[in-house]
Write a structure and sequence with these properties.
The complex is a heterotrimer of chains A (661), B (204) and C (99). By secondary structure, chain B is mostly helical. Chain B contains six helices and no strands. The chains are: A mainly alpha (661), B mainly alpha (204), C mainly alpha (99). Chains in contact: A-B, A-C, B-C. At the B-C interface, helix 1, helix 3 and helix 6 of B face helix 1, helix 2, helix 3 and helix 4 of C. The structure holds protoporphyrin IX containing FE (HEM) and copper (II) ion.
């Protein structure tokens, strides 16, 4: 990236030889090629890299899912052995949740949150880069297990004692525990970074209640992460100490309580499901108003219901443990709390419906995915309410009915929201429009595929097909046409239709990159600040930091109320507004400078972790790298010294971001 | 921004300030981190509380805890909080010499505490309480060990900060850096206040 | 309080830090005394109260939370409150508080 940007002038960024930062190591200055990406601290580049990494893992997790469905399509499946099957569903879920869903939400958050609040970067740009690289390291560690003796096989919630050394002797669980710890540190740092960014770096005039809903939902998610990640970290540490160093936490013969893991896991696990869904809620809360050409109905309700979902989300975890013998009082309490959490969720659905009500709906692909979310998520939410009734859940738990529930909320909800975001913001990020025709194929194939795959699972579950069953026999298939075997086949066919739908997206991306049409500055007549700049945005985001007067500031700069006709009258278009900003550009914007240390530090943490499996010498190496990188980090000012900029500027107009980051 | 915003919390948050809240990014991040750490230590403490009476083999807590000894090391850690706060207040006055003095004393007290913990652990092991001996053993060593690691990290930070201040290489606002380390240090101290009561003084 | 202007902003001077430390030390002394003197039924509540008092004093005065922005208090006490809530609830399901 360019170290210094002078908006409005066309001179190439001038960089004098950088000062030495530590011993022989100098700051990276590359503005071209792969180095530009590896050492960048620009939130937009980091956001794109998050997206690429997450997409790659989406494909990995998707292939794992297809293998599972192939195995179960017909009786006596022989694609996977029982052992491989266990690894497959464990890694499928782990990959989808921790390596696709969270990073993809991170991609959107990283890219758009600073833009939506009118900031030039996040609060701690180097920590932002560190989060990305730690995530990559965690993902590699998790998946390396496939080639180093087999992956983890205990299910994504990895219940102990089953995941202890006695029942899971391979290294799979060790890699899983380590990979998640590293990815967990990444999310924790990321969440602290984003919270501070939202609290501290808003453009002048942007009060909390003038923030876009997407930013709000991301804020709630980061609070959930800050307070729930340490809980799973405790669980992971206990399991690691038991597996690698002989601790006894889950050793029942010593009197251990097997429910300890379940509590720790689900205290994290339930907030986690909101971590997964709320970013998508945020995305469609931007998309629906834009394409209904109406403001979001009941903005404060959407915000407060989001926040209360977050808070109540910490008090319902034991609904995942109804069948574990908690005792009647606990079950009753958690059952009622769970029913209560459906209320704020329902509030949101009504807000979206009323946003569309009476609007001039514009059925772009982004809009279709958003509407798809509203419908499919509602189905999943309703089956969720049926599990909140403990007696009914006792029938459903550990059957395919649960699998149906969480795929409706996760695929129909979360994934559809993310795809809506792809289509909505693609022009902003890449300056080109995704093809709407391919988008339509993409959408309809995904809708059909998703309902064919997960709809029948409700029936299968109620018929008693247990979750995590690796094979079924012809005799179990049943008689008549609409039997157990039939629905399994339907689900498997559906999964391939779904995969083809996703393939259309990838084709669309390639085609758009090759020959897509250049996007206008404001293709959707959008409402929020991220559109008040060029597409793609310049490295410093805004030529002039906007001063905010309204919720939906960008919209209000384009439209004026015509009180006579009671309508909005257009007074400017996006193009003109952006040009006005360019004309009034700030002088000499100092952006945070690139750095080697984030990627070095992340690598060190990875090596340190592997030392837990492969012994002390490796750990020592890892520790040395971590220590070296930490000192390099601390001793390096995050904004390059003045001498690194040419010529030095001290006209009082200098904007520095994050002196310690 | 760190130059100006260290103690302006009382001022209104008009646009003149660099951040929306008028608080510095670093301090906000530190408090968030500490809020998060509450749930980390909470989990370890709860695990210990659940398991402290479960001694399938090896010694029972009441037999090996040496309350007078632990009282002294608790007192040492408590006093290190005082010296830390004095370091912060010297740093805010811009008094480098005293800052360094108090940071040194704090690091020494911290190191003394760690020394005490090493001694305690070796004694316990000699008396038959290994890491794998019982649920009590595992959860005791994990909780206090985790705390010990936090103290050690604190000592390293104190020593490095002193070195960096002395060489004049500090990036950012010196008083704030000392203040942030202070916050971390006090947090580690309050965790010990809880551990001292729940683990040592209240018998299982 | 005869402190400099900057210190008045915090409401704390070095002397008052030392006072706080003396109080903390005294409470610690009392805590330790429960090991030697029999407090009867007061034992547990007394110890827990003293623990909380010490905790709050360090947080409020040494960590300045009492004088600092309310946002810091919000962040920290939210974490603390959630920790108390989730872990006490989990322990309650283990019948931890019954015996
Ligand atoms: C209307 C709100 C919701 C309610 C009342 C609800 C209720 C429940 C209940 C009671 C269970 C446990 C079922 C069992 O294992 O026996 C469950 C499982 C699950 N839910 Fe939900 N849920 C809701 C929304 C969501 C959302 C928004 C997501 C994620 C985006 C989600 C994801 C999951 C997952 C992944 C599981 C399965 C966990 C596992 O066993 O692996 N749920 N839900
Ligand atoms: Cu749940």
């Amino acid at each position: 990236m360019a170290i210094i940007e002078r908006p409005g002038t066309e001179t190439t960024p001038a960089v004098v030889t950088p000062q030495q930062t530590l011993g022989a190591v100098k700051r990276p200055v590359e503005t071209k090629g792969w180095r530009e990406w590896l050492f960048t601290v620009d939130h937009k580049k980091i956001g794109i890299m998050y997206g690429v990494v997450a997409m790659a893992f989406f494909i990995v997790g998707g292939v794992e899912a297809l293998l599972i469905r192939l195995q179960l399509a017909a009786p006596n499946g022989h694609i996977l052995s029982a052992d491989k099957y266990n690894q497959m569903f464990t890694m499928h879920a782990t990959t989808m949740i921790f390596l696709f869903a969270m990073p993809m939400a991170g991609a959107f958050a990283n890219y758009f949150l600073p833009l939506q609040i009118g900031a030039r970067d996040v609060a701690f740009p180097r920590i932002n880069a560190l989060s990305l690289w730690l995530l990559v390291v965690g993902g590699i560690v998790l998946n390396a297990s496939w080639f180093l003796g087999g992956a983890a096989d205990g299910g994504w919630f990895m219940y102990a004692p089953n995941s202890g050394p006695v029942f899971s002797p391979s290294h799979g669980v060790d890699f899983w525990v380590l990979g998640l710890q590293v990815a967990g540190i990444a999310s924790l740092l990321g969440s602290i970074n984003l919270i501070v960014t939202v609290l501290n770096m808003r453009a002048p005039g942007m009060s909390l209640m003038k923030m876009p809903v997407f930013t709000w939902m991301i804020l709630v998610v980061q609070f959930l992460l800050v307070f729930s990640l340490p809980v799973i970290t405790v669980a992971l540490v206990l399991l690691m100490l038991q597996r690698s160093y002989g601790a006894t936490f889950f050793d029942v013969s010593q009197g251990a309580d097997p429910l300890l893991w379940q509590h720790l896991f689900w205290i994290f696990g339930h907030p986690e499901v909101y971590v997964l869904i709320l970013p998508s809620f945020g995305i469609i809360s931007e998309v629906l108003p834009t394409f209904s050409r109406k403001p979001l109905f009941g903005y404060p309700f959407v915000v407060f219901s989001g926040a209360s979902i977050g808070l109540v989300g910490f008090g319902v975890w034991a609904h995942h443990m109804f069948a574990s013998g908690l005792g009647p009082v606990s079950v009753a309490v958690f059952s009622i709390a769970t029913m209560a959490i459906a209320i704020p969720t329902g509030v949101k659905i009504f807000n979206w419906l009323l946003t569309m009500w009476g609007g001039k709906l514009w059925y772009t692909t982004a809009m279709k995915f958003a509407i798809g979310l509203v419908i499919l998520f509602t189905i999943g939410g309703l089956s969720g309410v049926t599990h909140s009734v403990a007696p009914s859940d006792t029938q459903q738990t550990d059957t395919y009915y649960i699998v149906a529930h969480f795929h409706y909320v996760l695929f129909g909800g979360m994934v559809f929201g993310l795809f809506s975001g792809f289509y909505y913001w693609w022009p902003k990020v890449f300056g080109k429009m995704l093809n709407e025709k391919l988008g339509s194929w993409n959408f309809w194939l995904m809708v059909i595929g998703m309902n064919m795959t997960f709809g029948p699972m409700h029936i299968l579950g109620l018929q008693g097909q247990p979750r995590r069953m690796y094979i079924w026999t012809k005799a179990r298939g049943g008689e008549g046409l609409f039997n157990f075997g039939f629905w399994n086949m339907v689900a498997s066919i559906g999964s391939f239709i779904l995969a083809i739908g996703v393939l259309f997206f990838l084709i669309n991306v390639v085609k758009t990159a090759r020959s897509g049409k250049t996007a206008p500055l404001d293709p959707w007549d959008a409402r929020t600040l991220e559109w008040l700049t060029t597409s793609p945005p310049k490295p410093h985001n805004f030529d002039r930091i906007p001063v905010v007067h309204h919720l939906d500031e960008f919209f209000h700069r384009k439209y004026e109320e015509d009180s006579a006709a009671n309508t909005m009258r257009k007074i400017a278009d996006g193009e003109e507004l952006v040009r006005a900003e360019e004309a009034a550009a700030d002088a000499n914007i100092h952006l945070p400078a690139p750095s080697y240390w984030p990627i070095v530090l992340a690598t060190g943490v990875g090596i340190l972790g592997l030392g837990i499996i492969y012994g002390v010498p490796i750990m020592v190496v890892g520790f040395a790298v971590v220590l070296f990188a930490s000192f390099g980090w601390v001793l390096e000012p995050s904004v390059a010294e003045d001498i690194d900029f040419a010529p030095a500027s001290n006209d009082g107009n200098t904007k520095e971001i994050a002196p310690l980051g | 921004m760190a130059e100006t915003a260290t103690h302006t919390a009382d001022h209104s948050t008009e646009h003149g300030h660099e951040t929306s809240t008028g608080l510095t990014n670093n301090k906000l991040a530190m408090w968030l981190f500490l809020g998060s750490e509450c749930l980390l230590f909470g989990g370890l403490i709860s695990t210990y509380m659940l398991y402290r009476g479960r001694v399938s083999s090896g010694p029972h807590p009441s037999r090996i805890f040496d309350i007078p000894f632990t009282s002294v090391s608790s007192f040492v850690l408590l006093m290190s909080s005082l010296t830390m706060v004095l370091a912060v207040s010297s740093a805010q006055r811009g008094d480098d010499r005293r800052t360094n003095l108090w940071l040194t004393v704090t690091a020494l007290l911290g190191a003394t505490f760690i020394g005490g913990q090493v001694y305690e652990f070796t004694t316990f092991i000699r008396e038959g309480l290994g890491f794998s001996t019982s649920l009590f053993g595992s959860s005791f060593y994990t909780l206090t060990g985790f705390h010990g690691v936090h103290v050690s990290v604190g000592v390293i930070m104190l020593l490095s900060t002193m070195g960096i201040i002395r060489k004049g290489k500090i990036t950012g606002n010196k008083a704030e850096v000392v203040e942030l380390i202070g916050l971390y240090w006090h947090f580690v101290d309050i965790v010990w206040i809880i551990i001292f009561t729940l683990v040592y003084l209240i018998p299982s | 309080m005869n402190a400099t202007a900057e210190h008045q902003e915090h409401g704390m001077s070095d002397a008052s830090y030392i006072k706080i430390a003396i109080i903390l030390a005294a409470i610690t002394g009392l805590e330790v005394s429960t090991y030697y003197v029999d407090f009867g039924p007061l034992f547990m509540p007394a110890l827990l109260t003293m623990m909380i008092v010490k905790f709050v004093m360090v947080v409020s005065y040494f960590m300045h939370l009492k004088f600092d922005s309310k946002i810091f208090s919000f962040l920290f006490y939210t974490g603390l409150g959630l920790a108390l809530f989730v872990y006490c609830t989990a322990l309650a399901t283990f019948k931890f508080f019954v015996s």
